[in-house]
User: What shape does this take?
Amino acid sequence: QVQLVQSGAEVKKPGASVKVSCKASGYTFKNYYMHWVRQAPGQGLEFLGMINPIGSNTNYAQKFEGRVTMTRDMSTDTVYMDLASLTSEDTAVYYCAREGHDWQQLDFWGQGTLVTVTS
Amino acid sequence: DIQMTQSPSSLSASVGDTVTITCRSSQRIDIYLNWYQQKPGKAPKALIYAASNLQSGVPSRFSGSGSGTDFTLTITSLQPDDFATYYCHQSYSNPRTFGQGTRVEVK
Assistant: This one.
Protein backbone atom coordinates (compact mmCIF):
# COMPACT_ATOMS: atom_id res chain seq x y z
CA GLN A 1 0.00 0.00 0.00
CA VAL A 2 1.15 3.53 -0.72
CA GLN A 3 2.71 5.23 2.29
CA LEU A 4 4.36 8.60 2.75
CA VAL A 5 6.19 8.89 6.06
CA GLN A 6 7.49 12.29 7.08
CA SER A 7 10.17 13.32 9.53
CA GLY A 8 9.36 14.54 13.02
CA ALA A 9 8.42 17.91 14.43
CA GLU A 10 10.94 20.74 14.38
CA VAL A 11 11.43 23.87 16.45
CA LYS A 12 13.49 26.58 14.80
CA LYS A 13 14.57 30.13 15.55
CA PRO A 14 13.72 33.00 13.21
CA GLY A 15 16.22 33.20 10.37
CA ALA A 16 17.06 29.52 10.48
CA SER A 17 16.31 26.85 7.88
CA VAL A 18 14.36 23.61 8.19
CA LYS A 19 14.55 20.43 6.13
CA VAL A 20 11.61 18.05 6.13
CA SER A 21 11.78 14.57 4.61
CA CYS A 22 9.11 12.37 3.08
CA LYS A 23 9.87 8.70 2.47
CA ALA A 24 7.68 6.94 -0.07
CA SER A 25 6.86 3.26 -0.26
CA GLY A 26 4.36 0.95 -1.91
CA TYR A 27 4.70 2.33 -5.44
CA THR A 28 7.29 3.17 -8.11
CA PHE A 29 8.75 6.37 -6.70
CA LYS A 30 10.11 7.79 -9.95
CA ASN A 31 6.73 7.69 -11.69
CA TYR A 32 4.87 10.27 -9.58
CA TYR A 33 5.38 13.95 -8.86
CA MET A 34 5.44 14.94 -5.20
CA HIS A 35 3.87 18.12 -3.83
CA TRP A 36 4.46 20.05 -0.63
CA VAL A 37 1.49 21.76 1.01
CA ARG A 38 1.40 23.58 4.31
CA GLN A 39 -1.29 24.55 6.80
CA ALA A 40 -0.80 27.30 9.37
CA PRO A 41 -2.66 26.88 12.68
CA GLY A 42 -6.40 27.20 12.10
CA GLN A 43 -5.89 28.08 8.44
CA GLY A 44 -6.37 26.47 5.04
CA LEU A 45 -4.06 24.61 2.70
CA GLU A 46 -1.26 26.34 0.79
CA PHE A 47 0.79 24.95 -2.11
CA LEU A 48 4.56 25.40 -1.79
CA GLY A 49 5.71 23.53 -4.86
CA MET A 50 6.30 20.18 -6.51
CA ILE A 51 9.12 17.98 -7.73
CA ASN A 52 9.42 15.43 -10.48
CA PRO A 53 11.62 12.62 -9.15
CA ILE A 54 12.87 11.96 -12.67
CA GLY A 55 15.32 14.71 -13.44
CA SER A 56 14.48 16.62 -10.23
CA ASN A 57 12.50 19.27 -12.12
CA THR A 58 10.74 21.55 -9.70
CA ASN A 59 7.95 24.11 -9.79
CA TYR A 60 7.69 26.45 -6.82
CA ALA A 61 4.94 28.84 -5.86
CA GLN A 62 6.17 32.36 -6.53
CA LYS A 63 5.64 33.28 -2.89
CA PHE A 64 8.38 30.80 -1.89
CA GLU A 65 10.78 31.22 -4.81
CA GLY A 66 14.31 31.79 -3.54
CA ARG A 67 13.48 30.41 -0.12
CA VAL A 68 12.34 26.84 -0.80
CA THR A 69 14.32 23.98 -2.27
CA MET A 70 12.89 20.56 -3.07
CA THR A 71 15.16 17.62 -3.74
CA ARG A 72 14.92 13.86 -3.96
CA ASP A 73 17.08 10.82 -3.26
CA MET A 74 16.31 8.02 -5.69
CA SER A 75 18.34 5.52 -3.65
CA THR A 76 15.97 5.87 -0.66
CA ASP A 77 12.74 6.98 -2.40
CA THR A 78 12.73 10.14 -0.31
CA VAL A 79 11.90 13.73 -1.13
CA TYR A 80 13.05 16.70 0.89
CA MET A 81 11.71 20.22 1.38
CA ASP A 82 14.14 22.83 2.64
CA LEU A 83 12.72 26.22 3.70
CA ALA A 84 15.15 29.02 4.56
CA SER A 85 14.94 32.38 6.36
CA LEU A 86 12.15 31.22 8.61
CA THR A 87 9.79 33.65 10.33
CA SER A 88 6.94 33.08 12.74
CA GLU A 89 4.59 33.08 9.75
CA ASP A 90 6.19 29.83 8.60
CA THR A 91 4.86 28.04 11.68
CA ALA A 92 2.66 25.36 10.13
CA VAL A 93 2.14 21.70 9.46
CA TYR A 94 3.94 20.73 6.27
CA TYR A 95 2.59 17.87 4.19
CA CYS A 96 4.00 15.95 1.27
CA ALA A 97 1.41 14.57 -1.13
CA ARG A 98 1.67 12.35 -4.19
CA GLU A 99 0.21 13.65 -7.43
CA GLY A 100 -1.94 11.10 -9.22
CA HIS A 101 -1.77 10.47 -12.93
CA ASP A 102 -4.26 11.86 -15.47
CA TRP A 103 -5.94 14.54 -13.36
CA GLN A 104 -3.11 15.52 -11.00
CA GLN A 105 -5.12 15.10 -7.84
CA LEU A 106 -3.23 14.63 -4.57
CA ASP A 107 -4.14 11.02 -3.94
CA PHE A 108 -1.93 10.14 -0.98
CA TRP A 109 -0.66 12.37 1.80
CA GLY A 110 2.03 12.14 4.43
CA GLN A 111 1.07 12.46 8.08
CA GLY A 112 2.39 16.01 8.32
CA THR A 113 5.35 17.63 10.07
CA LEU A 114 4.83 20.49 12.50
CA VAL A 115 7.41 23.22 12.13
CA THR A 116 7.36 25.82 14.89
CA VAL A 117 9.35 29.01 14.49
CA THR A 118 9.92 30.78 17.77
CA SER A 119 12.62 32.88 19.39
CA ASP B 1 -3.02 32.59 -10.00
CA ILE B 2 -6.42 30.89 -10.09
CA GLN B 3 -8.49 31.81 -7.06
CA MET B 4 -10.81 29.20 -5.60
CA THR B 5 -13.81 30.38 -3.59
CA GLN B 6 -15.87 27.99 -1.52
CA SER B 7 -19.25 28.60 0.04
CA PRO B 8 -20.39 28.47 2.66
CA SER B 9 -17.40 28.77 4.99
CA SER B 10 -19.25 26.65 7.50
CA LEU B 11 -22.57 24.94 7.88
CA SER B 12 -24.48 23.06 10.54
CA ALA B 13 -26.24 19.83 9.67
CA SER B 14 -27.71 16.72 11.23
CA VAL B 15 -27.08 13.07 10.56
CA GLY B 16 -29.17 12.06 7.57
CA ASP B 17 -29.18 15.51 5.97
CA THR B 18 -28.05 16.23 2.44
CA VAL B 19 -25.25 18.80 2.32
CA THR B 20 -24.03 20.77 -0.69
CA ILE B 21 -20.80 22.76 -0.87
CA THR B 22 -19.94 24.94 -3.83
CA CYS B 23 -16.58 25.94 -5.26
CA ARG B 24 -15.98 28.58 -7.89
CA SER B 25 -12.75 29.19 -9.77
CA SER B 26 -11.66 32.59 -11.05
CA GLN B 27 -10.77 31.07 -14.45
CA ARG B 28 -12.07 28.09 -16.37
CA ILE B 29 -10.39 24.88 -15.24
CA ASP B 30 -12.25 22.28 -17.33
CA ILE B 31 -12.81 19.47 -14.81
CA TYR B 32 -9.45 19.73 -13.05
CA LEU B 33 -11.18 20.07 -9.72
CA ASN B 34 -10.60 17.86 -6.69
CA TRP B 35 -12.15 17.60 -3.24
CA TYR B 36 -10.51 16.63 0.05
CA GLN B 37 -11.81 15.91 3.53
CA GLN B 38 -9.80 16.87 6.59
CA LYS B 39 -10.44 16.03 10.22
CA PRO B 40 -8.75 17.88 13.11
CA GLY B 41 -5.12 16.90 13.54
CA LYS B 42 -5.12 14.71 10.44
CA ALA B 43 -3.85 15.00 6.91
CA PRO B 44 -6.35 15.73 4.16
CA LYS B 45 -7.88 12.72 2.45
CA ALA B 46 -8.70 12.61 -1.26
CA LEU B 47 -12.42 12.26 -1.95
CA ILE B 48 -13.14 13.22 -5.54
CA TYR B 49 -10.95 13.93 -8.56
CA ALA B 50 -11.74 15.35 -11.99
CA ALA B 51 -14.88 16.98 -10.58
CA SER B 52 -16.99 13.85 -10.27
CA ASN B 53 -14.84 10.73 -9.86
CA LEU B 54 -14.76 9.04 -6.47
CA GLN B 55 -11.36 8.15 -5.11
CA SER B 56 -11.05 4.44 -4.38
CA GLY B 57 -12.74 3.49 -1.12
CA VAL B 58 -14.83 6.65 -0.79
CA PRO B 59 -18.49 5.97 0.04
CA SER B 60 -21.04 6.57 -2.70
CA ARG B 61 -22.93 9.13 -0.58
CA PHE B 62 -20.25 11.57 -1.76
CA SER B 63 -20.70 12.99 -5.23
CA GLY B 64 -19.29 15.84 -7.25
CA SER B 65 -20.34 17.76 -10.30
CA GLY B 66 -19.48 20.76 -12.42
CA SER B 67 -17.11 21.97 -15.08
CA GLY B 68 -15.58 25.22 -16.20
CA THR B 69 -15.80 27.49 -13.17
CA ASP B 70 -18.60 26.12 -10.97
CA PHE B 71 -18.46 22.92 -8.97
CA THR B 72 -20.36 21.23 -6.18
CA LEU B 73 -19.71 18.54 -3.61
CA THR B 74 -22.81 16.81 -2.28
CA ILE B 75 -23.00 14.50 0.70
CA THR B 76 -26.22 12.53 0.76
CA SER B 77 -27.46 11.14 4.06
CA LEU B 78 -24.72 12.69 6.19
CA GLN B 79 -23.04 10.24 8.56
CA PRO B 80 -21.29 10.94 11.89
CA ASP B 81 -17.93 10.32 10.24
CA ASP B 82 -18.58 13.10 7.71
CA PHE B 83 -18.30 16.02 10.13
CA ALA B 84 -15.06 17.57 8.94
CA THR B 85 -13.64 20.36 6.81
CA TYR B 86 -13.79 20.06 3.02
CA TYR B 87 -11.45 21.72 0.53
CA CYS B 88 -11.65 22.10 -3.21
CA HIS B 89 -8.41 22.19 -5.20
CA GLN B 90 -7.60 23.02 -8.80
CA SER B 91 -4.98 20.95 -10.61
CA TYR B 92 -5.40 22.77 -13.93
CA SER B 93 -2.36 25.02 -13.65
CA ASN B 94 0.48 26.10 -11.39
CA PRO B 95 0.45 27.36 -8.77
CA ARG B 96 -2.10 24.83 -7.59
CA THR B 97 -4.61 26.51 -5.34
CA PHE B 98 -7.16 25.48 -2.73
CA GLY B 99 -10.45 26.87 -1.59
CA GLN B 100 -10.52 28.28 1.93
CA GLY B 101 -12.42 25.28 3.26
CA THR B 102 -15.95 24.52 4.41
CA ARG B 103 -16.45 23.24 7.92
CA VAL B 104 -19.39 20.86 8.34
CA GLU B 105 -20.50 20.93 11.97
CA VAL B 106 -23.07 19.10 14.03
CA LYS B 107 -26.34 20.98 14.30
Notes: DSSP finds no helices and eleven strands in chain B. The longest strand of chain B covers residues 19-25. The mean pLDDT of chain B is 97.
